[in-house]
Amino acid sequence: MNLIKSPTVDLFISKEVLMMDRARFSLDDDPGASIGLTKESMYTLLNKYLESLFYSRDHFRQYCEIYAKQQGLKPYGILSAHGSFRDEEWTYDTDTSSENIQDWIAENDGAYGTLIIACCNSEAVTPDSERSLLFVPDRTFELFIYHPKDGKIAHPVFSIIKPGGIEIDSYTIRYELEQLKRRVG
């Protein structure tokens, strides 16, 4: 796995997905850099992830950012790799093996306000955490999926899973955001 860091986002990304994203977003190479990208390209990639994940989901973004600030945590940690369901577990592919997504969550829980799982979730698994919010898809996942007929972007449905397992979806996000804003003051 490769790690791309910025002040607000850390992206844990597999080599395979990084190669696809490098081509998809026409990122500039830097052979001397640890992951082969210029610093500007790394920031472009991080911005593309946030732009895609929160496209038409501004209430979700606001909720995540207020929560991170309230908790005193770095806003986002993103896991981007191919996801699958193996041996009754939701897993992601590293460069050399398959790892349990719940284990990745446990390792990073409390380091970020929101852990974003940018991995396919074909079995609609609902993971849990103790401190971080989880932003998880309910099916296959890909950044920027275009419909050729109307040019619109199709996204998987995402939900926020709060510590304790309470789900915030597109039907409840506005109410939950207002409640969070009231608590924070």
In short:
Helix content is 32%, strand content 27%. With 185 residues, it is an alpha/beta fold.
Describe, in plain words, how this protein is organized in 3D:
By secondary structure, this protein is of the alpha/beta class. It has one domain (2-184). It is 32% helix and 27% strand. The protein has 5 helices and 12 strands. The protein has helices at residues 15-24, 39-53, 58-71, 101-108, 173-184, and strands spanning 2-5, 9-13, 74-80, 83-86, 89-93, 98-100, 112-118, 133-137, 145-146, 153-154, 158-161, 167-168. The strands form 3 sheets. Strands 1-2-3-7-8-11-12 form a 7-stranded mixed sheet, with helices on both faces. Strands 4-5-6 form a 3-stranded antiparallel sheet. It has a two-stranded antiparallel sheet with strand order 9-10. α3 packs parallel to α5. The chain is globular and about 50 Å long. The model has no long low-confidence stretch (mean pLDDT 86).
